[in-house]
Automatic annotation (TrEMBL):
Keywords: Hydrolase, Membrane, Transmembrane, Transmembrane helix
Entry protein name: PaaI family thioesterase
Gene3D superfamilies: Hotdog Thioesterase
Signal peptide: none
Keyword Transit peptide appears in the UniProt entry: no
Top-rank EC class of the record's enzyme: hydrolase
Pfam families the record matches: 4HBT (PF03061)
Transmembrane residue ranges: 58-79
Keyword Membrane belongs to the record: yes
EC annotation from Swiss-Prot or TrEMBL: 3.1.2.-
Domain Thioesterase residue range list: 44-120
One GO molecular-function entry: hydrolase activity
Amino acid sequence: MSLKEKVAEFMTREFPQTNVVVEEVGNRSAKVRQPIGEEHLRPGGTVSGPVLMAVADVAMYAAILGEIGLVALAVTTNFTINFLRKPSATCDILGECRLMKVGKRLVVGEVLLYSEGDLEPVAHAVGTYSIPPVR
Protein backbone atom coordinates (compact mmCIF):
# COMPACT_ATOMS: atom_id res chain seq x y z
CA MET A 1 0.00 0.00 0.00
CA SER A 2 1.39 3.42 -0.96
CA LEU A 3 1.91 6.23 1.55
CA LYS A 4 -0.98 8.15 -0.03
CA GLU A 5 -3.27 5.13 0.34
CA LYS A 6 -2.22 4.63 3.98
CA VAL A 7 -2.90 8.28 4.84
CA ALA A 8 -6.22 8.29 2.95
CA GLU A 9 -7.38 5.07 4.69
CA PHE A 10 -6.34 6.48 8.08
CA MET A 11 -8.25 9.71 7.44
CA THR A 12 -11.37 7.78 6.40
CA ARG A 13 -11.20 5.62 9.50
CA GLU A 14 -10.26 8.27 12.09
CA PHE A 15 -12.13 11.27 10.62
CA PRO A 16 -15.27 9.95 8.92
CA GLN A 17 -16.87 13.40 9.17
CA THR A 18 -14.64 14.74 6.38
CA ASN A 19 -15.03 14.01 2.70
CA VAL A 20 -11.82 15.73 1.65
CA VAL A 21 -9.96 13.43 -0.75
CA VAL A 22 -6.23 12.89 -0.24
CA GLU A 23 -4.62 12.93 -3.70
CA GLU A 24 -0.86 13.09 -3.00
CA VAL A 25 1.38 12.72 0.04
CA GLY A 26 5.16 12.80 0.39
CA ASN A 27 8.28 14.96 0.37
CA ARG A 28 6.92 17.24 3.10
CA SER A 29 3.81 18.00 1.09
CA ALA A 30 0.26 16.91 0.35
CA LYS A 31 -2.49 17.68 -2.15
CA VAL A 32 -6.16 17.28 -1.32
CA ARG A 33 -9.51 17.89 -3.02
CA GLN A 34 -12.89 18.92 -1.62
CA PRO A 35 -15.77 18.22 -4.00
CA ILE A 36 -18.11 21.22 -3.82
CA GLY A 37 -21.88 20.97 -3.67
CA GLU A 38 -24.77 23.13 -2.46
CA GLU A 39 -24.07 22.11 1.16
CA HIS A 40 -20.66 23.85 0.98
CA LEU A 41 -22.00 27.23 -0.10
CA ARG A 42 -22.94 30.24 1.97
CA PRO A 43 -25.41 32.97 1.05
CA GLY A 44 -24.09 34.84 -1.95
CA GLY A 45 -23.08 31.65 -3.75
CA THR A 46 -19.54 31.22 -2.53
CA VAL A 47 -17.76 28.39 -0.74
CA SER A 48 -18.00 29.00 2.99
CA GLY A 49 -15.00 29.96 5.10
CA PRO A 50 -15.31 26.93 7.38
CA VAL A 51 -15.12 24.63 4.32
CA LEU A 52 -11.94 26.36 3.13
CA MET A 53 -10.43 26.16 6.61
CA ALA A 54 -11.23 22.46 6.84
CA VAL A 55 -9.60 21.75 3.47
CA ALA A 56 -6.45 23.62 4.54
CA ASP A 57 -6.34 21.79 7.88
CA VAL A 58 -6.77 18.37 6.24
CA ALA A 59 -4.04 19.17 3.68
CA MET A 60 -1.64 20.09 6.47
CA TYR A 61 -2.55 17.04 8.53
CA ALA A 62 -2.04 14.73 5.54
CA ALA A 63 1.40 16.21 4.87
CA ILE A 64 2.34 15.80 8.53
CA LEU A 65 1.16 12.18 8.61
CA GLY A 66 3.33 11.57 5.56
CA GLU A 67 6.36 12.75 7.54
CA ILE A 68 5.83 11.45 11.08
CA GLY A 69 3.57 8.45 10.50
CA LEU A 70 -0.07 7.82 11.32
CA VAL A 71 -0.40 9.73 14.60
CA ALA A 72 -4.02 10.43 15.52
CA LEU A 73 -3.16 12.78 18.38
CA ALA A 74 -1.17 15.36 16.40
CA VAL A 75 -3.27 18.49 16.85
CA THR A 76 -3.57 21.98 15.39
CA THR A 77 -2.20 24.57 17.82
CA ASN A 78 -2.30 27.62 15.57
CA PHE A 79 -4.09 28.33 12.29
CA THR A 80 -4.30 31.53 10.26
CA ILE A 81 -6.05 31.88 6.94
CA ASN A 82 -6.20 34.75 4.49
CA PHE A 83 -9.13 34.70 2.08
CA LEU A 84 -7.79 36.16 -1.15
CA ARG A 85 -10.65 35.97 -3.66
CA LYS A 86 -14.08 34.46 -4.13
CA PRO A 87 -13.88 30.72 -4.86
CA SER A 88 -16.00 29.23 -7.60
CA ALA A 89 -19.27 27.72 -6.41
CA THR A 90 -19.09 25.08 -9.14
CA CYS A 91 -15.49 23.83 -8.92
CA ASP A 92 -13.74 21.56 -6.45
CA ILE A 93 -11.41 23.21 -3.95
CA LEU A 94 -7.81 22.01 -4.18
CA GLY A 95 -5.40 22.31 -1.28
CA GLU A 96 -1.62 22.17 -1.67
CA CYS A 97 0.41 21.96 1.52
CA ARG A 98 4.14 22.42 1.98
CA LEU A 99 5.69 21.82 5.39
CA MET A 100 8.19 24.52 6.29
CA LYS A 101 9.52 23.04 9.56
CA VAL A 102 9.28 19.52 10.93
CA GLY A 103 10.60 19.43 14.48
CA LYS A 104 10.34 16.95 17.35
CA ARG A 105 7.36 18.72 18.96
CA LEU A 106 6.04 21.20 16.38
CA VAL A 107 5.40 21.20 12.65
CA VAL A 108 4.76 24.41 10.69
CA GLY A 109 3.27 24.42 7.22
CA GLU A 110 1.46 26.51 4.67
CA VAL A 111 -1.42 25.70 2.35
CA LEU A 112 -2.58 27.35 -0.84
CA LEU A 113 -6.21 26.75 -1.80
CA TYR A 114 -7.48 26.96 -5.38
CA SER A 115 -10.74 26.59 -7.25
CA GLU A 116 -9.99 23.80 -9.70
CA GLY A 117 -8.93 25.23 -13.05
CA ASP A 118 -7.89 28.61 -11.62
CA LEU A 119 -4.18 29.41 -11.28
CA GLU A 120 -4.76 32.14 -8.68
CA PRO A 121 -5.20 30.96 -5.08
CA VAL A 122 -8.46 31.71 -3.28
CA ALA A 123 -6.87 31.44 0.18
CA HIS A 124 -3.52 31.05 1.94
CA ALA A 125 -3.22 29.37 5.35
CA VAL A 126 -0.37 28.88 7.79
CA GLY A 127 -0.61 26.47 10.67
CA THR A 128 1.29 24.82 13.48
CA TYR A 129 0.67 21.32 14.76
CA SER A 130 1.80 19.87 18.07
CA ILE A 131 3.26 16.37 17.83
CA PRO A 132 2.66 14.08 20.82
CA PRO A 133 5.78 12.66 22.48
CA VAL A 134 6.83 9.15 21.49
CA ARG A 135 6.08 6.69 24.29
